[in-house]
Design a protein that fits this description.
The chain has 363 residues and is an alpha/beta fold. It folds into 2 domains: 265 residues, ANL, N-terminal domain (Rossmann fold), CATH 3.40.50.12780; 88 residues, ANL, C-terminal domain (GMP Synthetase, Chain A, domain 3). Helix content is 27%, strand content 32%. The strands form 5 sheets. It has a 7-stranded mixed β-sheet, with helices on both faces. Strands 3-1-2-4-5 form a 5-stranded mixed β-sheet. It has a 4-stranded antiparallel β-sheet with strand order 13-14-15-16. Strand 1, helix 1 and strand 2 form a beta-alpha-beta unit. Helix 1 packs across helix 3 and helix 2 packs across helix 3. The chain is globular.
Length: 363
């Protein structure tokens, strides 16, 4: 058996120190949730000892329900780190811009230890900001530079580029990375296209805690990872799987393999039946997000006389014409409730907080 060590995400430097012991095989690590306005968050303690092969115990994001804990072996984490580095062109220096208690943020620090490089750590205890990101980027000195962002962070940076007098600060910072991993949910295609046309090296990452984080980059499975589509859902196998899963992990994501590349369509649990017809909430979000004047959007399922119907929580520019939605979303995709907010609710991981969105619409 191996002892466990719990460290708070509020102290990412302590988490980095813990990761050195994890990589050395001395302990199994658990990163507890960060403090909120200086107050610690209650969480169920992890066992004091776990199996010898365990490297990290991580929690899922909990965007659709109660988070679950997942044990990932040290071997799986190392396999993931090395496969990622091989795809990207070698190990390098990382910038931490995500909370370390979720797999994407934890991987940034774990991979820094594997690469024997000093990461730059952004203050993740405060909301993500362009200023904080730019300050952190200015501290990077590595020959190869990487970071991991969620789509909401990328959208925020992209929205500010055209407001810059010279279009130089943010875009230059983004261009300085050898790769920026974008994961956690489907990104905005317009944002990707715009930034890639400016020379920003974006890599769409697909994966979850059960697969040691991203295991598919730009639709291509990392070395050792195998993909299948079973009844429309993505199944993953290979050395990156977490403990207790077995030989294959069947995700909740709908996808297809086109010309050897994985294309994610949406989540199976994000498809509702309204009036006897299926509606993808992910597709609704993508269509609304593409509308000019929409900054951010969350689509959720609401109970209705048709079974379930669409509800929208929107962050839009001043003067946005809401009637656009009525003409664009027809039939069962037409929302029965729309709530405008200054900022859509998100978890500290950056993923949409669907439960909070439903509560806003219920109110």
């Amino acid at each position: 058996m191996k002892p466990t060590l719990t460290t708070s995400a509020s102290d990412p430097f302590a988490v980095l120190k813990m990761m050195t012991r994890v990589v050395d095989g001395q302990v199994a690590g658990f990163v507890s949730p960060p403090e909120i306005t200086g107050i610690g968050v209650d969480f169920d303690p992890v066992p004091t000892q776990v199996s010898e092969d365990v490297g990290l115990i991580v929690e899922s994001s909990g965007s659709t329900g109660r988070p679950k804990r997942i044990e990932i072996s040290l071997a799986a984490l190392i396999a993931s780190a090395n496969a990622s580095a091989k795809f990207l062109g070698g190990h390098g220096q990382w910038l931490l811009a995500l909370p370390a208690n979720y797999i994407a943020g934890a991987n940034v620090l774990f991979r820094s230890v594997v690469a024997d490089t000093q990461p730059v750590i952004q203050n993740t205890r405060v909301p993500f900001s362009a200023e904080g990101f730019l300050n952190s980027v200015s501290l990077m000195r590595g020959g190869k530079r990487y970071t991991s962002l969620v789509p909401a962070q990328l959208d925020r940076l992209a929205a500010l580029i055209d407001l810059e007098s010279q279009n130089s600060g943010i875009i230059a910072a983004l261009q300085s990375f050898d790769a920026i991993l974008i994961g956690g949910q489907l990104p905005n295609p317009a944002t990707l296209e715009s930034l890639k046309s400016r020379g920003v090296k974006l890599v769409e990452s697909y994966g979850m805690a059960e697969t040691s984080g991203g295991c598919v980059y730009d639709g291509q499975a990392l070395e050792g990872v195998n993909l299948e589509i079973i009844d429309g859902q993505v199944a993953v196998s290979g050395p990156v799987l977490a403990n207790g899963i077995g030989e294959k992990f069947l995700s909740s994501d709908l996808g297809e393999i086109v010309s050897g590349r994985l294309k994610i369509i949406g989540r199976a649990d994000r498809v509702i039946v309204s009036g006897g017809k299926k509606v993808s909430l992910d597709d609704v979000e993508a269509r609304v997000a593409a509308e000019e004047g929409v900054w951010d959007v969350i689509a959720v399922a609401l109970d209705s006389k048709w079974g379930q119907s669409v509800g929208l929580v929107l962050a839009v520019s001043k003067g946005f014409d809401e009637s656009k939605l009525q003409g664009m979303l027809l039939g069962p995709a037409k929302p029965i409730a729309v709530q405008k907010v200054s900022q859509v609710p998100r978890l500290i991981s950056g993923k949409p907080d669907y439960q909070a969105a439903r509560a806003l619409l219920a109110d």
